[in-house]
User: Fold Concanavalin A-like lectin/glucanase domain-containing protein from Gigaspora rosea.
Amino acid sequence: MDLLTAWNLDDKSTYLSVDSSGLRVSYEGLGENDEDVGAIRANHPIPPYCKLFYFEVDIIDEGKNKIIGIGFCEKEFDLNRMTGWEDGSWGYHGDNGNFICSGNCHHHGPSFSNGDTIGCCLNFTNNTVFYTKNGINLGIAFRNLKGTLYPCVGLRSQGGSIEVNFGSRKFKFADIEAKPII
Assistant:
C-alpha cells in the first residue's frame, strides 16, 4: 500500500497550482462565485489498516475572502466544489469556522487565517473526525465516517495558498505524536 506523501497533481481543479514539492497549493482563480472553486486530493487514499490518520495544513495566505476548506473526500467528489459542500466530503472552513458535511453545517469552530495551522484527524476506531487549530484540539466535528477517504483541501479565495504536512516534519499538535499514525 502506498502512503500519502503529497497532493495528487493529476487529481485537482484547474483553479489550483501545486509547487514542485507537491505540498504547497495556490489558488489561481478570482473566487467571485461558487463556480470558482478549486479542490485537490492527496496522492493516495488513507490506508485501510490505519486506525488514526492525522495531517496539518499551514495557511500561508488566506487570500481575499478566506474561503478555504480542509478535510476529507471520497474519490467521486467533484474537485470543482468546496470540501464539505457536496455528498462524500467533509470540511472545516476558514472564513466562518463552520464544520460542513454533505452541504450541512454541523458545528461552529473558530475561523482561521494567515499563519494558522489546522490539523485534521480521522479516527477509524470510532469513525470520528476532530480538528486542531495551532496545536489545540477543537473536539469532534464529524461522526460515522466510513469508506475509502482522501485528505482534501478546497480554495475559493483569490491569492489563497496553503501547505500540507503529512508527517514529514513535526506536527504542532503534540498529542498525536504519542500515538502511531499508521
